[in-house]
Automatic annotation (TrEMBL), chain A:
Parts of the chain that traverse the membrane: 25-46, 58-74, 94-114, 121-148, 168-188, 217-236, 298-316
Pfam families tied to this protein: BPD_transp_2
Entry membrane topology: Multi-pass membrane protein
One term of GO molecular function: transmembrane transporter activity
Subcellular location: Cell membrane
Keyword vocabulary terms for this entry: Cell membrane, Membrane, Transmembrane, Transmembrane helix
Descriptive protein name: ATPase
A Gene Ontology cellular-component term: plasma membrane
Biological classification of the source: Bacteria, Bacillati, Actinomycetota, Actinomycetes, Kitasatosporales
Automatic annotation (TrEMBL), chain B:
Keywords for the protein's UniProt record, in alphabetical order: Cell membrane, Membrane, Transmembrane, Transmembrane helix
Record protein name field: ATPase
Organism: Wenjunlia vitaminophila
Coiled coil: none
Keyword Disulfide bond attached: no
């Protein structure tokens, strides 16, 4: 009803615009400031080697965050991504005997299956996304450990190349992450699926009345998230040349959500900002690197990351309310 | 012309009054409330028949003691979940509590107890204030504080390199290791806390507010329930209890272990939900959570008894349990909504 | 009488929202022991008025007096503590908690130890509820009770926390006849206790059965207040709809009296849904605009939604151009050529965060894509065509729909559906909340579309629009078809008489013949 319009708070226009600008572009500003700070105050920051290291470290987070961005775009969340990475590494290690390609395929199928389960729970049973993916998070981590109870070294030349090799100086891992980011951005912008995803996230009732396949969109989104997490697990395994289902992907859900939210996407759905997500992942990585390079211990980076999350969610919340 | 797919005839309001005594509904309510207990009894019976070493005094004593710490965490979680929230920080807070207790035990028993309570209670309070006042989603706030608690813990322990030991002769250590009437002190403390928790939840106005906030937040506010205050209290309580459990665990192990306990939030949530508390809030039982904890521990014990099975099976089982319970609860909830 | 003459009064009340003047200089007073009906159509301002009275909204101008004193209620809780309680259609209690706990939340009887005394609480709850005709096990969860009994619990709670004014917002919308009787009994008893009742409903029979006074609002303005006994039904309907009685004929020539005897493009038969629709049937021929008349809550929107598959039905069928359509499925209805412009444009129509372009192309996307990739050139062509044809005013196709005016949002929705080449358009109050100029434009568009051979179902709170825009009008009341007007009978006068005619018992499932002498002989009775 027209009369149910909630009166807007009396925020002055210029301040409101500033807030909106910060939500939109704050993450790029943050990345720039951190870069400048490091150039000025951090020794050996401007070296190719340093950038390589940073990029390689951030790649798996970014890949998981891409899937998370899609899920959050539909007003959901996927807490099972870390467990899917662990499952992926277990499956890889088990099936590596059949060749790296077959092992990769099995890992991807595993990720897709978990995504399918998440999606079915959300779309058909009507379970809240956080509850459904939390249950899968517990079970899948256990499954990964059942399949592979302890750390196992991975000796495979192809995977070793993939993990540490490069093309014209750019590590394969980073190239793959960039390619996936472009692919997801393309899917969001150019495909029917992308448009439908945004409509479902923005206004589910309107999407339903417009005859969109709401359930199918939701399921595909969670499957994408599962598959991307499996890819991240594969790459992380290749880089470490070891499968460690106990620790791989721990707290990954948090890092991925942080990258998405810091990138300017509110948790209330209807938007997918791939550029922002990439910048968000970079921001967290740079922040951690900066703290470490200035001899602050990892414990401080965790506390700092927690603060960044709370601030980012709080800032993005304003938009979600509108 | 198509013949319609006729939905089950909607029950008229008049008929629904009698539907309260409907056998199906009664049964599902019973399953909700006592399903875990039945499963626990059956499983324990099967286990005692199958394994000679299951129903022994030592084994039971052991299970009771190792259940105690998870049970205390699950108690706080029960309050949180009944309000419709979730607290993902308890695992890290548990570890932090243990480290703070072990660190503080050098300054006496009182410090060893009060320091973890103060520190962990503060984290819970911050969770509660952020959730109640800024209306941020509980899972994201507590996920962030999980990280923060872990950071603080690592900071105190030189990035996890230092393990603080509890003096073998201190009074504090006796809290974890002594026995009363042949039963460990932590078990007694757990029992007392659960009785107190049940009384608070069932028999006080605060308890009623907890249910009301989770059952229908807007209605609760309209009926005069202090929604924000109730939320702040339950998260603070959850932090306090997780800290206490960590401290007792440190006393039991005689050290502030820095690696055990992460991921405990998932076990606690699983225990609470399996025990019959609705993950969407508004309905739950303190006793159910205790049964849920015992059920998880018995499963773990059986897996250990089998020997050839890895302990990770327990996670698979509780994950599978969770999925089933959540599906069942959602269906139950949907039936409620069709009026 | 020791009580003041008025227990609650507002004078000169004005409330604005961005772009809308929801209440304009409204005066409303309630005396103790009075049952005061508050009526009005969509957008009349009833819900805003109630929200101001109960502290949800603060007035922009005007004075609120309670028990003779100026009052300001910051929150609904404050209002309730002061003694103004609201019983909503959706009962505002906690369904998972027991009946007794709901009744006593926050004021439970306690033992000396400070613990809740359940024995006493249950005994007292049983006694209190017994007075309201509710005899149930008070230990069971509230949700096990029927809606009527739940409302009684809410009412009992309100009265026992010393309510002086009880506001009931469509309390009978999901009650059985027997429960309605009980409710009326309770209302009469409240009256004896000098408690004032504000009764919001669209059901004439109920108003006349239980209310003393009536206040009519229209378009945010106060129109009429007076004893109900002195206001006959027809007058009341004409006051609500804002059309004087006796106005002759329709002033429009926009709808040619073409013959619509051939095969109907839409045939809905016997649509039924508990509490909402009772055996609703209608036909629309190509090129015809069928008006769906009736007051708010008569089942107009539900009929449209049921036809569009957006509301599951327990009985009935829908046929488009001779081919039957699966009910309860939006995609099936859309494939068959049915398009619905929903009543709640903002919540169910537009996708506010997406651009004009994406909104227009949304439903037609599969057709505008190849291998799952959007064919941008084709989208641009479609968007350009419709933006021009419907004269959509936006800074560019890439402007967010949420930023457009109401009229342009509505046109974007129309464009979305026209891009699907529908056979039937269901328009649920398409000009509501739209300024006058845009309104005329949308009305003209509807006529043009019908001329091109579409079947149009038109719902409108604006009687003039309904009468002038429709070739035939089917009149709904309490979820059933009560009359059908065609040819020269399509007049505001006939429509209002059909609406005002008393119905028989509300549980009677057969369509009823209006009993007022004039409409009885003239209104074509819809039946088979």
């Amino acid at each position: 009803m027209a009369t149910d319009v909630v009166p807007r708070r009396g925020v002055p226009a210029d301040r409101a615009q500033l807030v909106q600008w910060m939500q939109e572009y704050g993450v790029y500003l943050g990345v720039t400031v951190l870069l400048l700070f490091n150039v000025a105050f951090t020794d050996h920051f401007l070296s190719t080697e340093n950038f390589r290291t940073q990029a390689v470290q951030v790649a798996p987070v970014l890949i998981v965050a891409l899937g998370m961005a899609l899920v959050i775009g539909t007003e959901g969340v996927d807490l099972s991504v870390g467990s899917v990475m662990a499952l992926s590494t277990s499956l890889l290690s088990l099936y590596l005997g059949y060749g790296p390609l077959a092992a990769l395929l099995v890992a991807l199928v595993g990720g897709a299956a978990v995504g399918l389960a998440n999606g079915a729970l959300v779309a058909f049973v009507g379970v809240q996304p956080i509850v459904a993916t939390l249950a899968l998070m517990v079970g899948v981590r256990g499954l990964a450990l059942v399949l592979l109870p302890q750390l196992e070294d991975v000796h495979d030349p192809t995977m070793a190349t993939l993990g540490s090799g490069d093309l014209v100086g750019i590590p394969y891992v980073v190239l793959i992450a960039v390619a996936l980011a472009l692919l997801v951005a393309f899917a969001v912008r150019r495909t029917t699926f992308g448009r439908q995803l945004l409509a479902v996230g923005d206004s589910r009732p309107a999407a339903q009345l417009a005859g969109l396949p709401v359930r199918r969109v939701l399921i595909v989104v969670y499957v994408c998230s599962g598959v991307l997490a499996a890819v991240a697990g594969f790459l992380a395994t290749a880089r470490l040349s070891a499968s460690d289902p106990t620790s791989l992907g721990n707290l990954m859900e948090l890092s991925a959500i942080t990258a998405v939210v810091v990138g300017g996407t509110s948790l209330s759905g209807g938007r997918v900002r791939i550029g922002g997500t990439v910048a968000g992942a970079a921001l967290i990585q740079l922040l951690n690197a900066t703290l470490i390079k200035h001899n602050l211990s990892p414990s401080w980076t965790q506390i700092a990351q927690a603060a960044v999350i709370v601030v980012a969610v709080y800032a993005a919340r304003e938009r979600g309310r509108r | 012309m198509t013949v319609l797919k006729v939905r089950p005839p909607a029950v008229t309001p008049a008929a629904r009054t009698e539907a309260g005594t409907n056998r199906g509904e009664r049964l599902s309510a019973l399953a909700q409330q006592h399903g875990a207990l039945v499963a626990l009894v059956l499983l324990a019976a099967v286990a005692s028949l199958s394994f000679d070493s299951f129903a022994t005094g030592d084994n039971i004593e052991n299970m009771a003691l190792s259940s105690a710490f998870l049970a205390i965490v699950a108690l706080g979680m029960t309050f949180v979940i009944i309000t419709g929230g979730i607290d993902l920080s308890v695992g890290s807070v548990f570890v932090l509590g243990g480290v703070l207790a072990a660190w503080g035990s050098r300054h006496g028993t009182l410090v060893a107890l009060l320091l973890p309570l103060a520190g962990c209670g503060l984290i819970g309070l911050v969770n509660g204030v952020l959730i109640a006042r800024t209306r941020m989603a509980p899972f994201i706030v507590t996920l962030a504080s999980m990280l923060a608690a872990r950071g603080v813990m690592l900071n105190i322990t030189d990035e996890g390199a230092t393990t603080y030991l509890v003096d073998k002769n201190s009074l504090f250590i006796r809290l974890g290791q002594d026995e009363l009437l042949g039963i460990g002190i932590p078990v007694w403390i757990t029992v007392v806390l659960f009785v107190a928790g049940a009384v608070v939840l069932r028999r006080t106005r605060f308890g009623q507010h907890v249910y009301a906030v989770g059952g229908n937040e807007d209605a609760a506010a309209l009926m005069g329930a202090p929604v924000a205050r109730t939320k702040i209290i339950v998260y603070t309580l959850s932090g306090l209890l997780a800290g206490l459990a960590g401290a007792l665990n440190a006393a039991w192990l005689a050290s502030g272990v820095t690696i055990l306990g992460f991921g405990m939030e998932l076990d606690a949530i699983a225990a609470v939900v399996i025990g019959g508390t609705l993950l969407t809030g508004g309905l739950g039982f303190i006793s159910g959570s205790l049964v849920g904890v015992l059920l998880l521990k018995v499963i773990q014990n059986i897996i250990n008894q089998v020997g050839s099975l890895d302990s990770a099976y327990q996670q698979v089982v509780s994950g599978g349990f969770l999925v089933l319970v959540v599906i069942a609860q959602t269906w139950l909830g949907r039936r409620q909504q069709v009026i | 009488m020791s009580a003041p003459a008025e227990v609650l009064a507002v004078r000169g009340l004005t409330k604005r929202f961005p772009g809308v003047l929801a209440l304009d200089d409204v005066t409303f007073t309630v005396r103790p022991g009075e049952v005061h009906a508050l009526v009005g159509e969509n957008g009349a301002g009833k819900s805003t008025l109630i929200k101001v009275l109960t502290g949800v909204y603060q007035p922009d101008q005007g004075e609120l007096r309670y028990r003779g004193e100026p009052a300001v209620f910051g929150t609904p809780l404050r209002a309730q503590q002061a003694g103004i309680s609201t019983i909503y259609q959706e009962v505002n209690l906690v369904p998972l908690m027991s009946v007794a706990r709901n009744l006593y939340l926050g004021r439970e009887p306690r033992t000396r130890l400070g613990l809740i005394d359940f024995g006493r609480m249950h005994r007292e709850a049983e006694r209190v509820l017994g007075d309201y005709g509710v005899r149930v096990d008070v230990r069971q969860p509230l949700r096990h009770l029927g809606v009527g009994a739940q409302q009684m619990v809410a009412l009992a709670r309100a009265v026992s926390v010393n309510a002086r004014v009880v506001i009931m917002d469509e309390p009978t919308s999901s009650l059985e006849p027997r429960e309605v009787e009980t409710l009326f009994g309770v209302i009469r008893r409240l009256r004896e206790q000098d408690i004032a009742v504000v009764y919001v409903s669209h059901r004439m029979e109920e108003l006349y059965a239980v209310c003393d006074t009536v206040t009519v609002l229209r378009d945010g303005r106060h129109v009429h207040t007076g004893p109900l006994a002195e206001t006959d039904r027809l007058t009341l309907v004409s006051l609500m709809l804002g059309r004087p009685l006796g106005e002759v004929g329709r002033q429009t020539t926009a709808t040619p009296a073409g013959d619509h005897d051939g095969e109907p493009v839409l045939h809905a038969e016997g649509l039924t849904r508990p509490h909402q629709l009772r055996d609703v049937s209608l036909r629309i021929h190509p090129g015809e605009v069928l008006g769906l008349g009736g007051l708010l809550g008569s089942g107009r929107s539900e009929t449209a939604k049921a036809i569009a598959g957006a509301l599951p039905v327990t009985g009935g069928s829908v046929t488009v151009a001779g081919i039957s359509v699966r009910t309860g499925s939006t995609p099936a209805a859309i494939r068959a050529g049915i398009s619905l412009l929903p009543e709640d444009r903002k919540a169910e129509g537009i996708v506010p965060g997406l651009s004009v372009r994406e909104n227009i192309a949304l439903a037609a996307l599969p057709r505008l894509s190849r291998f799952g990739l959007v064919h941008e050139a084709r989208v641009d062509a479609v968007v350009e065509t419709f933006m021009k044809r419907l004269r959509i005013k936006a800074s560019s196709p890439h402007q967010k729909v949420g930023e457009l005016s109401g009229g342009n949002q509505q046109k974007v929705l129309l464009a979305r559906w026209l891009a699907m080449h529908p056979k039937v358009l269901l328009l649920d109050d398409p000009t509501r909340g739209i300024d006058v100029g845009a309104k005329a434009e949308v009305q003209k568009l509807i006529d043009e579309l019908a001329e091109q051979g579409l079947g149009v179902l038109l719902i409108s709170s604006d009687v003039e629009e309904l009468i002038s825009g429709s070739d035939r009008v089917v009149v709904l009341k309490d979820g059933a078809v009560v009359a059908e007007l065609s040819g020269d009978d399509v007049t505001e006068d006939r429509l209002m008489r059909a609406i005002a005619a008393p119905t028989t018992a509300p549980d009677d499932t057969s369509p009823t013949i209006p009993t007022s002498p004039t409409s009885a002989e003239e209104a074509a009775v819809h039946g088979h």
